[in-house]
Amino acid sequence: MPDFNEIMKMAQEAQAKLAEAQQNLDRIEVEGASGGGMVKVRASAVGRVISIEIDESLLQPSEKQMVEDLVAAAINDARAKADAASQNAMREATGGLQLPPGFKMPF
User: Fold this and answer.
1) Rounded mean pLDDT for each run of 10 residues along the chain, 107 residues in total
2) pTM here?
3) For 1-107, where are the E strands, in sequence order?
4) Superfamily classification of domain 27-93
């Protein structure tokens, strides 16, 4: 059984890996889409919207409500993908160790 110093060293290493993974999340990009790709949103894994692309065919006054709905749907799609990418990156950083929500290292 590892002694207390080894456990603390392992905890510090895990904390360093988590901090690095969190810093890298803003570099991971995902793309959400709606309307068959007519509206696309690129975002980082922390949910920062990088860009929005709207097909020109939607830029008519009569299509205003639909464009607004598609933008919202694309943002939500990007956000869901960002959450999944974030969870995957954190899972890799912890080596598959499941930490309870809100758990902070060190203890």
Assistant:
1) 79 81 83 93 86 90 90 91 85 68 53
2) 0.61
3) 29-34, 39-44, 49-54
4) Nucleoid-associated protein YbaB-like domain (3.30.1310.10)
